[in-house]
UniProtKB/TrEMBL annotation:
GO terms for cellular component: membrane. This is CKLF8 protein. The chain crosses the membrane at residues 35-54, 60-85, 97-117, 137-159. One of its GO terms (molecular function) is structural constituent of myelin sheath. The lineage of its organism: Eukaryota, Metazoa, Chordata, Craniata, Vertebrata. It comes from Pandion haliaetus. It comes from the Eukaryota.
Length: 168
């Protein structure tokens, strides 16, 4: 004997909102005109310079430069990722994530680890190691300190944003 099946489909408001919001891609041109946006672009450009100056040498022979490379590449990739999130205003589509806290943790950790990496980089640069790599390593050390100061600035702005958010 044949059975009768009834299939009911429902649409949740979450999927309806998700499909409606993903159809248009927002772009925040004004972000690059803010000081945090300018600092982020500077971090990307100079961070790229830090790791390419080291990557063009025989850094793998010296473990200290391996650490500097790890920090520089890791935070370069994450900074590009966060720039894309801020430029496309993705943070407005994911309100469950506490973006001010995430930004503060990201910039704070980047500042601390980049500062350590810059010190390691500067203390590892000596003429005795390898004279043809000296200039690249010295330049990478200088730019690592500049990138560290950019992350320090963004940490300050993230803290101000986080603090004003928690006081509300």
């Amino acid at each position: 004997r044949p059975r009768s099946h009834t299939v009911t489909t429902t649409s949740s408001s979450f999927t309806a909102n998700l499909s409606a919001s993903s159809s248009t891609l927002a772009y925040d041109r004004e972000f690059l005109r803010t000081l945090p946006g300018l600092l982020m672009v500077t971090e990307i450009v100079l961070g790229l310079l830090v790791w390419t100056l080291i990557a063009g040498t025989e850094y793998f022979l010296y473990p200290a430069f391996g650490w500097v490379m790890f920090v520089a590449v890791f935070y370069w990739v994450l900074t590009v990722f966060f720039l894309i999130i801020y430029m496309t205003m993705t943070y407005t589509r994911i309100p469950q994530v506490p973006w001010t806290t995430v930004g503060l943790c990201f910039n704070g950790s980047a500042f601390v680890l980049y500062f350590i990496a810059a010190i390691v980089d500067a203390s590892s640069v000596t003429k005795e190691l390898d004279s043809h790599n000296y200039n690249s390593w010295a330049a990478s050390s200088f730019f690592a300190f500049v990138v560290t100061s950019c992350y320090a600035g963004n940490t300050y702005f993230s803290f101000v944003s986080w603090r004003s958010r928690t006081l509300q």
